[in-house]
Amino acid sequence: MTDEERKHLEKRLLEERARVIGALDQYRQRKNVTSSDAAGDVSHYPYHLADEGTDTMDSELDAQEAGRETRELGEIDDALRRLYHDPQKFGRDERTGEAIPFERLDIIPWARTR
Length: 114
Prior knowledge:
By secondary structure, this protein is an all-alpha fold. The chain has one domain (3-25, 50-107). The protein is 68% helix and 0% strand. It is built from 4 helices and no strands. The chain has helices at residues 3-32, 35-39, 49-85, 102-107. The longest helix is centred in the middle third of the chain and has 37 residues, at 49-85. The two termini are 15 Å apart. The mean pLDDT is 87.
């Protein structure tokens, strides 16, 4: 891997890290505001049971997405750690030691396998 490719991938990792942190911040903000608060309701009594079910489903989907984003953030941080502290292993398949194609790393810069 060339120095130019390595710098490009570092930039991509930092961009992806910022995107994930932004998404997690949005999740935290949504979690702190209930749907009735967002709608301006003064009562927490739902208009209909279906409204409550929809709100619950939306909350569960948000929590699942936040979990996925949190795992992705861990992968990105691990990739940055490899890039900075063990650069000869960055961009190599963890199982085989073969180089991961640059095209794959450009799309998923934290990839661990070919």
